[in-house]
Amino acid sequence: MNYILMSIRARYAELILSGRKTLEIRKTAPKGKRETCEYTVLLYESKRDGGRGLIVGSFICRSIQPVEKMDLLEVERRSCLCREDMEAYAERPQRVSVKSQEKGWDIYAWSVENPVRFEKPMPMQLVGVSCPPQSWRTLKKSQNLKIGGAPNE
Predict the structure, then answer these.
(1) Backbone angles phi, psi at 10, to 5 degrees
(2) Is 69 within 8 Å of 95 (Cβ atoms)?
(3) Which DSSP letter does residue 16 get?
(4) DSSP-derived secondary structure letter, 24
(5) Is residue 78 predicted with pLDDT exceeding 60?
(6) What is the mean pLDDT of the segment spanning 85-104?
(7) CA distances from 81 to 12, 21, 32 (A)
(8) In terms of Cα–Cα distance, which of 96, 17, 100 is closest to 66?
């Protein structure tokens, strides 16, 4: 199993963990196979907007697709975002320059399946990370071996 640590605001983490949000919108995606992938995504609830600064849960991602290739109404419904919010997010500059940024609307929908809320949220140091990712990062085998209680382990 491949692991990803994803920073997320508290309100979106809650929507995912409650099962209401089944797509997570991001500006980038892992390289390689995206439409048929399998990642365990650990949710790091960022401290922004009153978050806890801990890993609060996880979900399985089996598909990552460009939003432009999907039915926009379905994306809005499943991501709990309106079109205007997605457009504003897509147009907001990133800290790291990405060539696809030139298109302006190149964002990805990560599937959210089997969300799990951790009974005891854990610090990111338990997965070998000392600084939260700007958006997401893959975890090396030596890092994710320290994860206890994550699904499909």
Answers:
(1) -55, -40
(2) no
(3) H
(4) E
(5) yes
(6) 65
(7) 10, 9, 27
(8) 100
Tell whether the model's pLDDT for residue 135 goes beyond 70: yes
Q: Is 150 helix (H, G, I), strand (E, B) or coil?
A: coil
Using the predicted structure, report yes or no on whether residue 76 has a pLDDT greater than 70.
yes
Which tokens in the block code for residue 56? 């609060």
Computed over its alpha carbons, how large is the radius of gyration of the chain?
Answer: 15
Residues 6 or more apart in contact with residue 137 via CB below 8 angstroms: 4, 5, 129
What would the pLDDT profile of 2-46 be if each residue is shown by its tens digit? 999 999 999 999 999 999 999 999 999 998 878 889 999 999 999
d(CA 19, CA 13): 10
86 within 8 A of 79, measured Cβ to Cβ: yes
- Give CA separation, 109 vs 13, 53, 87, 112, 147, in Å: 15, 24, 13, 9, 25
Sign, CA dihedral 61-121-21-68, equals: negative
Say what the pTM is. Answer: 0.86
Q: Which residue has the tokens 């504003």?
A: 88
Measure the CA–CA gap between 137 and 153, rounded to whole angstroms: 19
Pairing of strands 64-66, 108-111: antiparallel
